[in-house]
Amino acid sequence: MSLSTPRSLAGTSVPSSLEPAAGRRRRRRISRDQVLSVLLVSPSILAIAVFVYGFIGWSLRVSLSAWSGLNPDYTFVRLQQYAALLHDRRFAIDVRNTAIFTGLFLVVCLTIGFFLAVLLDQRLKGENLFRSIYLFPMAISFIVTGVIWRWLMNPATGTRISGLNLLFDRLGLDSFISRWHTTLPPWGIAFVVIPAVWQMSGFTMALYLGGLRSVSEDLREAARVDGANEFQIYRHILVPLLQPVTLSAVIILGHISLKIFDLIVALSQNDMRLDVPAVYMWRTTFDGNNYGQGAAIGIIMLVTVALLIIPYLVYSMRTEATQ
Amino acid sequence: MTTASPARRIVRPILYLLLILTAIVYLLPVYVLLVTALKSFAEVDLQTMWNLPSGFYFDNFREAFRLLAPHLRNSMVMVVSASLISSMVGSVNGYIFAKWKFKHADLIFTLILFGMFIPYQSILIPLVQFMQLIGLRGTILGLALVHVIYGIPITTLIFRNYYAGVPTEILEAGHIDGAGLVGLYRHILFPLSIPGFVVVLIWQFTQAYNDFLFAVVLTNPAQWPITVALNNLAGSQIVQWNVQMAGALLAALPTLLVYIFLGRFFLRGLMAGALKG
Lengths: 323, 277
Known about the structure:
The complex is a heterodimer of chains A (323) and B (277).
Chain A: H1 13-18, H2 21-24, H3 32-63, H4 80-86, H5 89-120, H6 127-135, H7 142-152, H8 163-171, H9 188-214, H10 217-225, H11 230-241, H12 243-258, H13 262-268, H14 277-287, H15 291-322
Helix pairs in contact in A: 3-15, 4-15, 5-9, 5-12, 6-9, 7-13, 9-12, 12-15, 14-15
Chain B: H1 6-37, H2 59-99, H3 105-114, H4 124-133, H5 140-164, H6 168-176, H7 181-192, H8 194-210, H9 213-218, H10 226-235, H11 241-272
Helix pairs in contact in B: 1-11, 2-5, 2-8, 2-10, 2-11, 3-5, 5-8, 6-7, 8-11, 10-11
């Protein structure tokens, strides 16, 4: 969509229309503007080269070192840090927590997001207001969300009952009373999905709603004329057309949940049962000074996210280029 | 469009009921936040947290503000400078990547984009070492700089998509009139860029303001932005939960206000993050 137009101004076509001399000495002569264009973006390119790629390389080097302590120690220990993580019980819990969290978060977020989008797609009155209500938690930080939900998901019962448990108690919905995120492992982490969904389902809704609205009304009208009911229109026309949106949503939500950090920090306040790799990395590096181990966790996180993101980036760029 | 059929008349109220019920669920946390923050110290009790306050009291707010005001200031200084610089960098980058394709520009752009998805844990150790080395660790300026740099991918992407929507014919006409790279930007694209700037400013404002990871490793208590200070407050045994709630409301307020008044632009930044122009 965005690449087809710029092409005509891009690359060689610009100087040929701009400068008569370009015809004579086309191969040698590079226009002043072309040099300038590269000069203008080079600080950014350099910054990304250093702060992203250079630092990833540096992290990789740290992850292959014995560095443990305040002073850098680059003694090469091959893959020992990674091997140690493989046998580390805390890291095993982290991986399990991330898997449960990511799986549940994706399923619940996509389901609720889709449901809300279909609901808002019915052209009801007050659509804008409702859309804003579902979406506003996106504007808030995970830290704020964590602080609020820590009190809402207060696990206390009996005379100390409070938060959602208290609400359920008052409403006579006793069966919903729960120990929330303090439920015994491995399911405590599953409850952290609730605030995460509260925060991110509006975004999923917006993605789906954008997709639904991009399907022309003519197509729906044609289906109606052919005798399809609303459910069939969604089932057979809209849902298949929304597959690219689902893919985008899975990628975006997936990479957020794989690196979930702030929410866990604010919600769990050091509860090890809710530990995830991002928190372990931070604790072991900056509290424990186990730099080698911290770097190894960081690299493992990067590889996991890259497996999800790189195919998506390549796919996005290819489809863009062919359009 | 379709005329109101009997089935529609039954379905509509159910749909509204669903909309309203869901909206209530989404607003529950805000309700608790508000009623708690507005209660007097005396009537704050975990067991009555759903009750309405007996009046408007600002005790909790005053206490939260006393504890968090310096950090709110840190956040604001950091966030305003970061988002202003970010938007300018993004605008120039977006212009070049949309309209002046140099060799391998698309490949380089994709490599830049990857930077917005990486888990920052994978660059955190070098980043802290580097900032220490150049003397910017523990400074608000350093934190702002980090947000500008790691904001390059998203700001470039938003502006690139935005400028791609400007018809190339307009620029070609400018070309024929003798405008070069700078002239085209100054006289044609920049005046058209206000919506793009608003989207990027809001996006970077929200991102930098809500960040916790960079702030917690790059600043000391004196420069803590509000997210780190709030988390510290929440972890403290001395600060009461009602003050924590008031603090959470205070911390949420700036981005919430931006969302309420400029929500349309906020949504556009959000969508750009999904790589769809």
